[in-house]
Amino acid sequence: MKIILVAGHGLSNKNAKVADVGTQAYKAAGEGTLYERDVVRKIARMTGDMTQLIPNLVCDQLGVETPLQLSKKVEVIWDQHRSTFGPVDLAIEIHLNGFANPSVYGSEVLYYDGDDKAEEYAGIFLNHILRRVSITKTRGVKGVKSGQNGAAFLGGLSRKGIPAVLTESVFMTNPATAQALRYGVLIPEIALGHASAISEIAG
Fold first, then answer.
1. Neighbours of 67 (CB within 10 A)
2. 184 CB contacts (<8 Å, ≥6 apart)?
3. DSSP H helical ranges for 133-161
4. Amino acid 59: pLDDT
5. In 51-150, where does DSSP find H-type helix?
6. How far apart are CA 70 and CA 91, in angstroms?
7. What was the pLDDT predicted at 175?
8. Cα–Cα distance between 117 and 122 in angstroms, integer?
9. Contact (CB, 8 A) for 30 and 175
10. 8 A C-beta contact, residue 130 and residue 107
11. Confidence of residue 11 (pLDDT cuts 50, 70, 90)
12. Phi, psi (rounded to 5 degrees) for 15
């Protein structure tokens, strides 16, 4: 089985950050600046490390060690799908959520509406994230339609026959969550949630 982990915002987007106290969506309480792109790269890298011992699994990463042009994500994965190294069975884009109201928290996983296999995988990821992450609650599995957030990635791959999910494990705009991310508490929990989901799917 071949799985692609995509670090949301990769190395090319410097604007996906968490900074001052709840002034707008995607910003959180706490000192200093915390960039979503840096956190999800750590999660992707750690998830990849945790999956190395899963039998018959190839887990590649995009946007972790080298820059990834965000508009080319689907094309890059499609090229890998058609390569001699074998088809891609699942693509996972890792993000962290945000909202203007800092009290909002929880986990949700997105898939492209109408893709039954991706919906099944999204449910598995949500279940494992909820089991592993200490500061969360369920916000459900959500099917997105064309024009909604995440649809370009999820729909682009779904139309090519590659199931894809987009994980939003926590809200960076929640002060307690942001603090736990800064201290490194949540990152291994989120990575373990992703790795254990991959293990179930690959098993």
1. 10
2. none
3. 151-158
4. 92
5. 73-81, 116-132
6. 15
7. 87
8. 9
9. yes
10. yes
11. low
12. -95, -10
Q: What distance in Å separates the CA atoms of residue 196 and residue 127, rounded to the nearest whole number?
A: 10
Which pLDDT tens digit goes with each residue over 116-143? 999 999 999 999 999 999 999 999 999 9
**What is the DSSP code (8-state) at residue 70?**
G
Residue that has been written with the tokens 């929880």 in this structure = 106
Give me the residues paired with residue 165 across strands: 92
- Which of 196, 140, 194, 170 is closest to 5 using CA atoms? 194
| Cβ proximity of 181 and 34 under 8 Å | yes
Angle between helices 186-202 and 175-182 (to 10 degrees): 90
- pLDDT tens digit string along 172-189? 888 899 889 888 889 999
Contact status, residue 76 vs residue 68, Cβ threshold 8 Å: yes
What does the block give as tokens for 50?
């945790």
Q: What tokens were used for 54?
A: 């899963």
pLDDT of residue 19: 39
Sketch the domain layout of the chain as residue ranges: 2-202
> What's the longest Cα–Cα distance across the chain?
49
Which residue type, as a one-letter code, is found at position 105? Answer: Y
Q: What single DSSP character describes residue 31?
A: S
pTM of the predicted model, to two decimals?
A: 0.89
Confidence of residue 22 (pLDDT cuts 50, 70, 90): very low
The CATH number that domain 2-202 falls under is 3.40.630.40
Beta strand 17-18 pairing with 34-35: antiparallel
DSSP symbols for 174-199: SHHHHHHHHTTSHHHHHHHHHHHHHH
